[in-house]
Amino acid sequence: MNKVAVIYYSLEGHTQFVAEKISERLGCPVIRIRLKKEFSTVNTFFKFFWAGKSSVFRETPALADQSLDLEAYATIILATPVWAGNLSSPVRSFLSKHRLEKKRVFLVATNSGGSSERCFATMRTLLPTGSVAREIGFINISEETYPIHRKQLEDFCDDITT
Ligand SMILES: Cc1cc2nc3c(=O)[nH]c(=O)nc-3n(C[C@H](O)[C@H](O)[C@H](O)COP(=O)(O)O)c2cc1C
Q1: Which among 11, 82, 120 is the best mutation to test ligand 1's pocket, defined by most ligand atoms within 8 Å of the CB?
Q2: pTM as predicted
Q3: Less crowded by CB within 10 Å, the N or C end of the chain?
Q4: Domain housing 149
Q5: What is the pLDDT of residues 103-116, one digit of tens each?
C-alpha cells in the first residue's frame, strides 16, 4: 500500500478521536497540527469568539515548528472540525504551507449538526485540482456515539486501501 498519514487539527477532541480511529484501522501515523499559540477552551464564549472569528476572516494562525516530512506519504487524510460553517483556521494554515502536490487526499470533517459541504468546498479550492479522492463528515462523533459511526468510518478506510 502507498504510504498513508492522517493529519488533523482538533480543539476539543472529536476530530482527534476520528483521526486516531482511522490511524488504528489503517496502521498509519497520525499527526496533529499544532499552533504556536493554541486557542483556549477554558471559556466557552471566548472559544467560539476567537476560533469562530479566525475561520470567518480566513485567518492563518502561525503553526508551531514541527518537522513534517510529507515526502514519504502518497496519501494524506486531512481532518478538521467545522468552524462557522467552514474549515478550521489551523487547517487553513496547514494548507497554505503545504500544497500537497501529487498526493491523493481524503478529507474528513466533524461538526455538531450543521453541514460539512462548504468546508469541503473551501478545502478543495486550497488543494491541487483533482487531488481529493473522497470526503466524509461526522456529526457529534465521540467514544459514546462511535457505534453509530463505526461502519461508515470502516468503509471509508477500506476505500483508502483499495
Ligand atoms: C468556533 C467554533 C465554531 C463552530 N462552528 C460550527 C458550525 O458552523 N457548524 C457545526 O455543525 N458545528 C460547529 N462547531 C462545532 C464543531 O464543529 C464540532 O463540535 C467538532 O466536532 C469539534 O471538533 P474538535 O472536538 O475536534 O475540535 C463549531 C465549534 C467551534 C469551536
Answers
A1: 82
A2: 0.97
A3: C
A4: 4-161
A5: 999 999 999 999 99
